[in-house]
Amino acid sequence: MLNTPGITPAIGRIGRSITHSTMHFLDAPCNGRIDNHPERGADPIHIARLSLNGFRNHAKTALQLHPGLTVFRGANGHGKSNLLEAVYMLAIAKSPRTSVERELISWKLGESGGHVQILGVGREGDETVQAQLDYDVAAPGSSSGTGLRKSLRLNGIVRTSSEFVGHLNVVFFEADDLEIVLGSPTTRRRYLDILISQSRPSYLKSMQRYSKVVTQRNHLLKRVREGSAEPDEMAFWDERLAYEGAGIIHQRHQVVRQLQDAAIPAHAELTGGHDLTLEYQPQLTGSGPSDKLPEPFTQSAIEESLERGLQEARRREIAQGLTVVGPHRDDLGILLNGQPAGSFASRGQARIIALALKVAEASVVKSLTGRTPILALDDILSELDPGRRKLVLQQVSQYEQVLLTTAEDDAVAPEFLEHAELFIVNDGKVTPVAN
Ligand SMILES: Nc1ncnc2c1ncn2[C@@H]1O[C@H](COP(=O)(O)OP(=O)(O)O)[C@@H](O)[C@H]1O
Ligand SMILES: [Mg+2]
Q1: Ligand 1 mutation target, pool 82, 97, 378, most atoms within 8 A of CB
Q2: Which domains are delineated in the chain?
Q3: Cα gap 357→135, rounded to integer Å
Q4: Hey, which of 7, 91, 113, 350 would disulfide with 139, CB 3.0 to 4.6 Å?
Q5: Could you write out the DSSP letters of every residue in 132-151?
Q6: Which of 92, 158, 64, 96 is nearest to 373 (CA)?
Q7: Is the pLDDT of residue 16 over 70?
C-alpha cells in the first residue's frame, strides 16, 4: 500500500503483505508521491469478515475480505450501495442514507418480524474487533412502539452509540458528496461532525449534550416570549450553551486546520493546481459568521464570545423563540480561487473539491486516531474522466483497504483491477469472481 504507479509496478493489493506500516498519504509534502517513512503510529485496519442478515435486499450476505482494493460490480439497483451503507454503519452506528431505520429492514422481515444483523470483524495487526448492529423486528400489529429494537455491540458487549463509534473507522465517498460544496451549512456541519465523532470519542457526547441544551433553551425562549418565564431565567442556559458550545467550536476549529492542510494538496493534484481554501466560520454572534475570531482561540475566549453573542442577540432570540448563536449554526467556508465554491464552482469543480475533502477526511481521521481508516467508495468513478479516475485510485490505493462499487465493467483501469478482489452483486447476492 505504500506504493503507487510510477514508483513500483504493483498497486492495490500490496497492503496484504505489510501489516505494520502506514500510509502517509498527504501527510508528506504532497506531490502525490509516497512517503516510505517507517511507522509513525498509524495502524492499518481492515474488515476481514462482513455479514448482513435481513439488511435491505441482502437476505444473507457473508464475505471474507482482505486488505487492498475490493471491487463490487453489478447493475444498478442490485444492492451495492446497501452493502457499503452497512459497512459505514459499523463505523458511525447509523445509516448515512436515512434516519428512518425501518427502511433498513428487509421488506420480507418487516412483514414477518425477526432479526436483522450487520456484523463486521476488523483486524488490526494481531487484534480483532467485532462490531455489530442488531435489530429485533416485531411483526406488524404487535404493540411495541416502532416495532424495532436496536442494539450496538463491540466484541459482544452492548454499547451506547458514543461508545460504539470510533472503533472501526470508515470514510464513505458517494456521489452526493458534492452537496458538501453546493448544499446547505447543515451538510458541511455533518461532514465535520462525522469526521470528529469518529476520531474523538468525547465529541459525540458533547454534541448530544449541546443539542439538549439548545432544545431546552429554545423551550425557555418561547416561554419568555409568551410571558410565562422571566428573561433573567436565561442566564443558566446561556452559560450552559457557551460552555458546551465552546468545546465543539474549539475542536471544529482545530480539525478544519488539519483538513485544510490535507485537502489543498489532494485538490491540487486532482486539478493540476487550482487554489482551494477552507475557512471555519463559527456563529459567535447573532448576525452571521464572525469576521474576526478571538485570538488566541482558546476554549475560554470562545466561551466569552458566545456569552457576549447571546447577550447581543437576546431580543431577536426571544422574538423568534430560537437560539441563533452557537455551533449548531456554524459553517465551513469553501473557497475556490478565492470565491465561495457553493456559488461559483461548476458541478464538475464541486465534485473534485468534494473528493479532495473526502481524501482529506481520511487523512485527518488517520492522524487523529492513529489508525488508518477503511475507505468505502460508492459509485464515485462514473462521474469522472479516465485521467481523474486513475488519480483517485492512486490516491486511495495508499490506504489499507478500499471497498469500491461500480456498475461499469471498465471503471477501474486494468492495472488496478489486476490486483483487486472482485465480487459481483446481483439481486442482493454477492459472489466472488476470479478476474
Ligand atoms: N428494506 C429493503 N428491503 C428489501 N429491498 C430493499 C430495501 N431497501 C432497498 N431495497 C432494494 O435495494 C435495491 C437498491 O440497492 P442499492 O444498493 O441502492 O443498489 P445499487 O446496486 O444500485 O447501489 C433496490 O432494488 C431496492 O428495492
Ligand atoms: Mg448505488
Answers
A1: 82
A2: 13-169+373-433 (3.40.50.300), 184-343 (1.20.1050.90)
A3: 33
A4: 113
A5: EEEEEEPPTT-SSTTSEEEE
A6: 92
A7: no
pLDDT at residue 90 is higher than 80? yes
Query: Is-contact 92 141, C-beta < 8 A?
Result: no
User: How many contiguous H segments (helices) and E segments (strands) does the chain have?
Assistant: 13, 17
pLDDT, average across residues 21-30: 27
Kindly report the backbone phi and psi dihedral angles of residue 7, in degrees, each rounded to the nearest multiple of 5, phi listed first: -100, -50
Lowest mean pLDDT among 34-38, 172-176, 273-277: 34-38
Q: Ligand 2 centroid vs 156 CA: distance in angstroms?
A: 31
57 C-alpha vs ligand 1 centroid, how far in Å? Answer: 5
One-letter identity of residue 53: N
- Kind and range of the H or E element at 69? strand 68-73
pTM: 0.87
Alpha carbon of 172 to ligand 2 centroid (Å): 13
- pLDDT tens per residue, range 202-227: 999 999 999 999 999 999 999 999 99
